[in-house]
């Protein structure tokens, strides 16, 4: 998972599946943070044509072919269908968001679908814990390590920006 996170950090183009027009929702806050950090963000939302002045795509399959990374910020019940769409759209990496609270986007089945389709996958983590500068999110990362809740090869390793 460490290598996949490093690829996300280095590749400055990412689809945000579940981007929101509502400034109070995480899908909008993450959109704005990614833009601030210099990422080209392709928002995906079936019910929007634009978010914060950026063209919005209705589905993963309508994204430009050059988009190879997707962050999913949707309820887990929807994620399995989204990762199937990612496989068909040739997305190489999927990040299933999970913040400090809540159940996150991931499901065991969605993770298995990614792996079965050769998609690198990150789950149970918030991207802002790794995308520099990390600020307050660094505390969240430290706490997850402290209580032993880091997945896979991230239990002790650091990820280099």
What would you note in describing this structure?
There is one protein chain. The protein is an alpha/beta fold and 161 residues long. The chain has a single domain, classed as 3-Layer(aba) Sandwich (Rossmann fold). It is 32% helix and 18% strand. The protein has helices spanning 2-10, 26-36, 76-88, 108-116, 137-146, and strands at residues 13-17, 40-44, 50-51, 54-55, 69-72, 93-97, 120-125. The strands form two sheets. A five-stranded parallel beta sheet has the order 2-1-5-6-7, sandwiched between helices. It has a two-stranded antiparallel ribbon with strand order 3-4. Helix 4 links the parallel strand 6 (93-97) and strand 7. Helix 3 (76-88) runs parallel beside helix 4 (108-116). The two termini are 14 Å apart. Residues 155-161 have low confidence and may be disordered.
Number of strands: 7
Tally of individual helices: 5
Q: Per the principal axes of the C-alpha atoms, what is the gross shape?
A: globular
- What fraction, in percent, of the residue positions are helical? 25-40%
Regions with little confidence, pLDDT below 50 for 5+ residues? 155-161
């Amino acid at each position: 998972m460490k290598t996949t996170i490093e690829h996300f950090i280095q590749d400055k183009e990412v689809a945000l599946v579940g981007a929101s027009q509502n400034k109070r929702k995480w899908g909008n806050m993450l959109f704005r943070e990614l833009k601030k950090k210099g990422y080209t963000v392709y928002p995906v939302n079936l019910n929007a044509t634009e978010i914060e002045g950026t063209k919005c795509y209705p589905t993963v399959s309508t994204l430009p072919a050059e988009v190879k990374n997707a962050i999913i910020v949707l309820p887990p019940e929807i994620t399995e269908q989204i990762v199937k769409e990612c496989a068909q759209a040739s997305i190489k990496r999927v990040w299933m968001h999970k913040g400090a609270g809540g159940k996150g986007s991931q499901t065991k089945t969605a993770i298995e679908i990614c792996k079965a389709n050769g998609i690198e996958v990150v789950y149970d983590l918030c991207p802002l814990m790794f995308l520099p500068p990390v600020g307050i999110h660094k505390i969240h990362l430290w706490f997850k390590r402290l209580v032993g809740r880091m997945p896979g090869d991230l239990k002790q390793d650091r990820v280099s920006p």
